[in-house]
Design a protein that fits this description.
By secondary structure, the protein is mainly alpha-helical. The chain is 56% helix and 8% strand. It has seven helices and three strands.
Length: 196
């Protein structure tokens, strides 16, 4: 191993975390364009317009960088700094991650925990999951944001508009748990960064 392998791995981990966050946020923003009060193609028109706007923003950014190439140095430095911060390993106390106790797949263990806390409901708030973990003596001193980062790291979909008892906040839907997820990033540290 070279002395650059550690920093390179941290940047790679951070890039996976940030890419997952951006993907979840962009998909949620586009999904909010759907109009339930309309039918047919008109109902999805808002989604198509939002997706088109995202494509236009990416295109305009590419054109801007081609026009002012020196801007790429600033963007590259910003990206690397963001990846570095997101990939920061956090030392956790005993049993800090819900999936670390077992030798199996961490994503499947967390999915099983979410299903257990969810019970017969269609969704569960992350606040409820965190309270469940803390009642078992795990994740003491951690926040919902830490749990969100952990789920993003494992590729488990979560959203900030999950309604349980008519209250929308960060949570996980059963349909998202049953859907196949992308492979999680290789784990050097299983705890998320709270610096981002």
């Amino acid at each position: 191993m070279s002395r650059l392998s550690g920093p390179a791995e941290r940047i790679a981990t951070g890039s996976v975390v940030i890419a997952g966050r951006l993907q979840v946020r962009a998909a949620a923003w586009v999904r909010r364009g759907y109009r339930g009060d309309l039918t047919g193609w008109r109902a999805a028109l808002g989604c198509w317009l939002r997706a088109g706007l995202l494509v236009a923003i990416v295109y305009a950014g590419c054109r801007l960088v081609r026009t002012v190439p020196a801007l790429m140095w600033l963007l590259s430095a910003s990206w690397l700094l963001a990846f570095w911060r997101a990939g920061k390993p956090v030392q956790t106390p005993d049993a800090a991650a819900p999936a670390e106790a077992s030798a199996g797949d961490p994503a499947e263990d967390v999915r099983a925990l979410l299903r257990e806390v969810m019970g017969d409901a269609d969704a569960v708030h992350l606040r409820t999951v965190l309270q469940h973990l803390q009642s078992r003596g795990q994740w003491e001193g951690r926040t919902v944001t830490d749990l969100r980062h952990r789920l993003a790291h494992l590729g488990i979909p979560h959203d900030h508009r999950v309604k349980v008892h008519r209250v929308p906040t960060w949570g996980v839907r059963r349909s998202a748990l049953d859907a196949p997820s992308p492979a999680p990033a290789e784990e050097t540290s299983t705890a998320p960064s709270t610096a981002a």
